[in-house]
Write a structure and sequence with these properties.
The two termini are about 35 Å apart. This protein has a single domain, classed as Rossmann fold (3-Layer(aba) Sandwich). It has eleven helices and six strands. About 35% of the residues lie in helices and about 15% in strands. The protein has a six-stranded mixed β-sheet with strand order 2-1-3-4-6-5, with helices on both faces. It is an alpha/beta fold.
Amino acid sequence: MPLRSTAGGRGETIKRMLPQLVPLVRIGRLLLNQIRYPVAATMLDWRGRVVGGPFAGMRCVHSGMVKFAPLLGFYERSLIPVVERVIAQRPRVIIDMGAAYGCCALGFARRCPDSRVIAYELGPTRGECTAALLGGDLWQSPGAFALMDAEGAEDTLPQPGIRNIGRSEMLIELREMFAPGVTARLRERFVRTHTSSVIPQAAVRSRPDGANRFIRAFWQQLNREPCGEPMAWLHLVPRATVCHA
C-alpha cells in the first residue's frame, strides 16, 4: 500500500490548486517570525545552518518553511541517541519515508557519505513509497536503516513479508490519533524478528549556557515541536543484531 499522509490533506489540496500562493505564505511566515523572535529569528534564518544536534553545521531551509526546532538541531531530540548510533554503524542504505523538506535525509547523507540515502515524500521531486519500492530498496541491502514519519501510513506500509525488512533497523513515528492501536499492531507484527521499544517525546531541554543570549531569551518557544500533541516513536532492532552485539 502506498505511503500516504492521513493528515494535512486540505493544505496539500490548496497547494496544488493555488501554487502561486505558496511562496507568498512562506515569505509572510518568515517575516512574522522576525517580529515574534527579534534578532534570534534573524540570526537563525540568515545563518541558515543547524546549530546543534547530530546534523550541526548542515545548511537548512529557513523558518518560512519549517519550525525553528530543526534549525536549532533539537527537533525530536529524544531520537538523538538512536540517530548517533545509526551514524556510527554506517549502514549501506538509509531510507527516509516521509522526508518532508529532506532535513534528516540530507543530514544522514552528510554524516554517512558512503551510505546510499533514499528519500520518499509526496511531492513533485520525490514520490510516494510503496511496499514494492521499499522491497526493492531492501532486497539487496540487508542491514538497512529505515526512518518513517508518515502520519498514519505506518499502520500499513511496514510488513514482515517485505524482503530483508526483518534484517533492517526501523524507527517509526507513532500516530495513534490517525491509526488507533498502531503501536500494539506494529510490535506484534515484528515480534519474531525485532526487539521493540517505545521512545516518548522528550521535554524541551534547559537553555544551554553556550547559546547566544537572544536565542536563549526565546529558547522554549523556538524549540517547540511542530506537532501539536506529544509524539512517540517505535524503535525496532533486528534480533540477529541484538544476538551478535
